[in-house]
């Protein structure tokens, strides 16, 4: 008996189609996770500034005097692959991600005591940071 084993053309086409569908779903999801991970650096870079502002406010400094490089607030950090800029003006921290991190803005606004913060910016609307 002559026994042929292997896959038919139809079976191969079905497998290729399934792989194509899975790839079409997986690639956008992966890109979103990558962007979230990159933007996490922007959020983490703002943490020492948030701490410095809270300390300054608890020590009685006026919120209007809290800017980058003054009253114990660290100097402006250098731009990185994911962080385009970070500034502090009147106690408000504004950090912007690079294109690789989605170009979102992350804004932290303290209350008068520095114990409560409001998060705003384009990252909130995009779901990259929590309000």
What features would you highlight for this structure?
alpha+beta, 2 helices, 131 residues, 4-stranded antiparallel sheet
Task: Describe the structure in your own words.
The chain is α+β, with helices and mostly antiparallel strands and 131 residues long. The protein has a domain at 37-126. 42% of the residues lie in helices and 18% in strands. The protein contains 2 helices and 4 strands; from the N terminus they run αββββα. It has helices spanning 9-58, 122-126; strands at residues 83-89, 92-97, 105-110, 117-120. It has a 4-stranded antiparallel beta sheet with strand order 1-2-3-4. Strand 1 (83-89) and strand 2 (92-97) form a beta hairpin. The termini are far apart. The mean pLDDT is 91.
Briefly, what is this?
This protein is α+β, with helices and mostly antiparallel strands and 131 residues long.
Structural class: alpha+beta
In total, how many beta strands? 4
End-to-end Cα distance: 72 Å
Major beta sheet summary: 4 strands, antiparallel
Beta-sheet strand percentage?
Answer: 15-25%
- Uncertain spans: none
Helix and strand element order: HEEEEH
Basic shape: rod-shaped
The count of helical stretches stands at 2
Radius of gyration: 24 Å
- How confident is the prediction overall: mean pLDDT? 91
**Major sheet: arrangement of strands:** 1-2-3-4
């Amino acid at each position: 008996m002559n026994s042929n084993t292997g896959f038919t053309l139809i079976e191969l086409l079905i497998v290729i189609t399934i792989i194509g569908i899975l790839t079409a779903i997986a690639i956008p999801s992966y890109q979103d996770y990558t962007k979230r991970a990159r933007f996490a650096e922007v959020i983490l870079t703002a943490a020492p500034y948030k701490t410095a502002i809270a300390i300054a406010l608890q020590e009685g400094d006026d919120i209007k005097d809290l800017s980058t490089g003054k009253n114990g607030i660290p100097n402006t950090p250098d731009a990185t692959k994911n962080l385009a800029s970070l500034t502090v003006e009147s106690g408000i921290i504004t950090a912007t991600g690079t294109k690789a991190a989605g170009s979102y803005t992350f804004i932290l606004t303290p209350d008068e005591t520095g114990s409560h913060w409001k998060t705003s910016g384009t990252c909130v609307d995009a779901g990259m940071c929590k309000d």
